[in-house]
Amino acid sequence: MICLELFLTFLKIGAFTFGGGYAMIPLIRDEVLSHGWMTDERIMDLIAVSESTPGPIAINMATFIGSSQGGFAGAVCATLGVVLPSFVIILIITALVANLMKFAGVQAFLSGVRPVVVGLICATSVTMFLSVILSVSHFTDAISVDVRGVIILAALIAIHFIYKKIKGKRPSPILMILISAVMGIAAYSL
Question: Which of these ranges, 1-10, 25-34, 112-121, 149-158, has the smallest mean pLDDT?
Fold first, then answer.
């Protein structure tokens, strides 16, 4: 029963989210919280782990959530649910892409979806910032600044700009993740 619930929940997320994995995070968060599968804090940890592991973030999140709720079968069901809509849509678009893009309605649809995707990604960023740096999950929560988190964030921003100034290009996301992991271990294990 849990496998069917996981599959249908992630099928809905996969079918109604445009813009990729980061745009899915708010929907995944809402669905997981509404089902009571995880706490908000655990979801934030899951986002960090999903971002740090190879593969698309939404698929990683679906797999981890499915695994936590239904073991291996739950992981498979959640992953299939989140991937299936995109897979089917891409197959259809690939078959029709040459003819589809010439229609003004398709171009208008895509133009209308782009701002929503940007908004969803921004909302996810703000939500993560409020939760991780200010410890705010709900409007009624008191603000409690995580000084170590602020220091790590400031250091990463400084590293980014220094690296860009010296090398003339942005630092690798992998390098930034490794640096933040080392800084997190150092700051939070004291």
Answer: 112-121
User: Phi and psi dihedrals of 136, rounded to 5?
Assistant: -115, 120
User: Looking at the predicted structure, is the pLDDT value of residue 139 above 90?
Assistant: no
Exposure string of 76-104, with b = 16+ CB inside 10 Å and e = fewer, is bbbbbbbbebbeeeeeeeeeeeeeeeeee
Pick the closest to residue 82 from 106, 109, 55 (CA basis): 55
* The two three-digit tokens of residue 73, written as one number: 């079968």
**3-state DSSP assignment of residue 119:** helix
- Model confidence at 117: pLDDT above 70: yes
Judged by DSSP in three states, 127 sits in: helix
Say whether 177 sits in a helix, a strand or coil: helix
d(CA 102, CA 9): 34
User: Could you tell me the pTM of the whole model?
Assistant: 0.63
What would the two tokens of residue 166 be? 């010296």
**Which two structure tokens, joined as six digits, stand for 50?**
């999903």
146 φψ region: left (φ > 0), alpha (ψ -120 to 50), beta (else): beta
155, pLDDT greater than 90: yes
